[in-house]
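Holo prediction. Input below; ligand is S-adenosyl-L-homocysteine.
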Amino acid sequence: MKMKNNNENKKIFIKSYGCQMNVYDSKRIKNLFEVRGFEETNQIENADLVILNTCHIREKASEKVYSDIGRINNLKKIQSKKKNFKLVIAGCVAQAEGEEIKKRSPSVDYIIGPQAYHKLPDIIGTDDNIVNDEFLQHEKFKNLLFKSSNDVSEFVTVQEGCNKFCTFCVVPYTRGSEFSRPVEEILNEIKIYSNAGNKEIILLGQNVNAYHGVNKNNKQADLAYLINCISEIDKIKRIRYMTSHPIDMTESLIKCHGDNKKLMPFVHLPIQSGSNTVLKKMNRKHTVKHYLNIVEKLKSYRSDIALSSDFIVGFPGEEDEDFDETMKLIDKVKFVIAYSFMYSPRPGTPAANKKQINIEIKKARLYALQTLLKEQQKDYNKSFVNNKIEVLFDRQGRHSNQYIGRSVYNQSVFIESDCNLIGSIKKIRIKNSTDFALEGEINEK
Ligand code: SAH
Ligand code: SF4
Ligand code: F3S
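Structure of the complex:
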């Protein structure tokens, strides 16, 4: 179905800078323009429409946008067709600093926030160049288009926004307050993907376990309910969710890990710090003990569950003793993977006005923490050597007979095979492990 033919041969280039939800939004933007005749290109100089889907979470991600705008301005090929060429800044930076973008980069044609991008096709060509003032989640999802990208694994945003206001974080300001999509709307979207061959669904939300959408009887449903509904779709073999907040880790969701065979034994549960003092300063609303209780409960339903987390080092007021507590927590929980960052002060957030920690201290802490995490990850991966594990293959490797998949615990698994394994789940014997991946061979016995 094509809605307008005057866009025939026009090319769109989209770059995602942020989290999985930002990637999901980029796919939806692509779908909105595809039905209007645009074709995606990965060569920016060939594009008629460039969309930078930005991220505001840390200064580095945010500043990258401005340097990219500068680079785009210097592309001769783009300058020669400037009259019809359009540059759009979408995403969380657009929401947070629309006016500043306009001031710093007058070459930008349109600025559109993450809740308004469904309007983008209608806005292009008008004089309405900044659209970021409202949080229109409900209207947005009703107006989006969902086309399978033919990936084995597909992200599906089920919840957006955040009411938690951690003192370091911009998300409540860029994505608005918590919103959950209705169960049926989500199931309909997933059926589009599963009918196209998709095997795994990764449910997304800034606080995905705060999900509370209505079901078909107009009753409020939680994430466990949604997961159970999705698992009834035959063609979907695996379900994952991210990112969860410890205070929304309900009994029903924890129990679901024991009851639902399609729900993978892997939980990304950010804690940020192992010190109660720092957690309080961060306004995380939970203690280390609360977190450890969740870990224990999860293990009681699913003893092999793998945990991952996010950490921030060098948060204002973090003393050496606080950092030691974080290291102790990591040592205790044995995360199978974790993402760690130096604290980055963000405009408009409470912690940005506090006395900041010296960059060298931040760097040293990050290095120590990442070294420990890497050791743990290496040991964890090593424990799989000579064991068999189920892997869903989702892409081709660098060599023509190399395939890459994900274990149930979300590890990358590499294998050589003469037949195409993409989309299949196979039991694999692990031969070798590295810090980041497993290498295996097919074992049909
Ligand atoms: N909603 C999720 C996290 C969303 S942001 C949660 O509550 O855990 C993803 C990660 O970015 C966070 O977990 C945090 O570790 C990191 N992050 C967020 N703001 C940051 C900042 N100002 N500086 C450094 N890291 C930050
Ligand atoms: Fe940010 Fe905290 Fe909300 Fe997560 S829970 S999105 S870290 S404010
Ligand atoms: Fe970045 Fe916005 Fe996601 S700030 S992490 S793109 S919600």
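The mean pLDDT is 93. That is the main takeaway for now.
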